[in-house]
Amino acid sequence: MRGWVGVVLTVAALCGCRPVDVYQCSTDDNCGEGRCEATGFCSFPDSACASGNRYGAFAGEGLGGQCVDGEGGTDLGSSSSSTVTSTNPTSTSTDPTLEPSSSSTSMTTVPISGTETDAESSGDPPGGTGQRVVIDLDTSEIDADYADFVLPIRLAESGLDLSLAGTDGDGLRFYDDDAPIPHEIETWADDAALVWVKVPVLEMGSAQIEVRVGERNPARSLPTTDVWTDYALVYHMNDEVIADGDPVRDASGFAFDGDATGLGDQQVEGLFGPAFRFEGSGQITVGSPPELEANPGAALSIEVWFQRSANGGTGYLLQHEACCLGYAMQAVGGGGPFLRSRLGVGCCTPDICCGADDINYRVVDANLPLEGDDPSWHGAVTTLDRAEGMLVTAYLDGTLRDTETVPDDPDPTFGQLFIGSNGENESFPGSVDELRISNRSRSEAWVQFQYEVMSGQRITYGPPEPLP
After folding, report:
1. What is the number of domains present in the chain?
2. Residue 380 lies in a domain
3. Burial of 363: CB neighbours in 10 Å, binned 0-12, 13-18, 19+
4. Cα 34 to the chain's mean position, in Å?
């Protein structure tokens, strides 16, 4: 965490009284052997406390020396024999549990991490005062309150001074009604800063969130996997791949990372940062986790952004199938190109591949017509509902294009998931950017709204304002 947090150590000279000292933290790394509590102060193991942790002597708000839960144990009291030094990594590390020396008369302002700056002891972050922007969300056409909805926030459109957030954006925070909400940075540059932000409840009608940079005391940073709690798989396609076998990261909490093949020199500019071009023999092998299967009683939604090459052709955006059982999204070239969303069911013998002449075998296709030589980026969503609706539904650019009924069949799907190919050198003729899979069937209104916000609509940035 490189976000700047001011720490002022003030020591009363030539007196035995306890000075008022505050050591603030933003991550556990700031607390040595302790941990950073939600209050923004360090605590350390103490068996005398019911919680097992006691605040350090430098905790503010009257918490110093108190048990974290406020029960059990006694105050730590004060000491007059220890010395305190800067948290600057180039000098001796501070132990937040220590009291300052009673003989010291200095006042020092230091950042929690990074190099020491010339910032004044007022606690202002380096580079100037912080800023905030209120982001308005037009939710007038959604059909319900959406839980855990992820927004693409393009900070270059906000007018914020992004240098206040640090070189990697570590000083960036988002809030919903002053409560911190999780985010993940996809790209970070003044002219191309894209951040994924999860809104816990996106309410019908209208909604607001707030982005802040350069706060004096920012909220504790939340794990990036918290952004994707509504998903079983999230691939940004922004990994550095040099050789076959290099990992492609799953940003969700499931961490279903894949192995790249034929993508060593195939990274291109995508719609949301880098993307992979799969033409030829490129593919990502994910494996066969049960969370990605389209089994009876379950539902899946697959979201993917793709760009076909000028020469069209046939190949797979993805396939999770074995012996005809499973699902796939396939681009079909030739006369009148289209995108096919396919679900195979009805083979009751998983170790024997059923043929097309098997009376129990069914392939359900929902087809999306494509323009002949269209080099544009498109967003496709396929829902596979084997729980209630019993439908395969295909959307292109937020619009419903086809729906097919799924036979009521008890057999599960199985097999490996391949992205950009079917695992048999039938690679997608083009590039793939953001790809996500969730264990639910998305509504038509949800798909339309998601396409609009991913395309830069429905989001309005207010003017930058100085933080109070």
Report:
1. 3
2. yes
3. middle
4. 27
Q: What CA–CA distance (Å, rounded) separates 89 from 94?
A: 10
Q: What is the pTM of this model?
A: 0.72
In this structure, the answer to whether residues 253 and 176 fall within a common structural domain is no
Pair 181, 240 in one domain: no
Q: 263 Cβ partners below 8 Å, 6+ apart?
A: 241, 246, 248, 276, 278, 282, 283, 284
Please identify which residue in the block is written with the tokens 């009683």.
297
Whole-angstrom Cα distance, residue 246 to residue 240?
Answer: 8
Task: Tell me what pLDDT residue 445 has.
Answer: 97
Q: State whether 309 and 199 are in the same domain.
A: no
252, 233 in Cβ contact below 8 A? yes
Q: Which segment of 22-26, 140-144, 229-233 scores lowest on mean pLDDT?
A: 22-26
Any domain includes 198: yes
The answer to whether residue 126 sits within a structural domain is no
> Residue 178, exposed/middle/buried by CB under 10 A (0-12, 13-18, 19+)?
exposed
Whether the predicted pLDDT of 458 surpasses 90: yes
Shared-domain flag, residues 70 and 190: no
Instruction: Indicate if 429 and 314 belong to the same structural domain.
Output: yes
Question: What are the pLDDT digits (tens) for 95-115?
Answer: 333 333 333 333 222 232 332
| DSSP output for 189-244 | STT--EEEEEEEEE-SEEEEEEEEES-SSPPPPPPGGGGGTT-SEEE-------ST
Domain span including residue 157: 131-217+456-466
Q: Are residues 135 and 112 in the same domain?
A: no
How high is the pLDDT of residue 414?
Answer: 79
Q: 351-394 pLDDT, tens per residue?
A: 555 544 444 556 677 777 777 667 889 999 999 999 988 899 99
Q: Containing H/E element for 450?
A: helix 444-454
CA angle 20, 22, 28 (to 5 degrees): 155
Same domain, yes or no: 37 and 109:
yes
Burial (Cβ within 10 Å: 0-12, 13-18, ≥19) of residue 389: middle
Say if residue 101 is in the same domain as residue 151.
no
* CATH number, residue 279: 2.60.120.200
Per-residue pLDDT at 212: 97
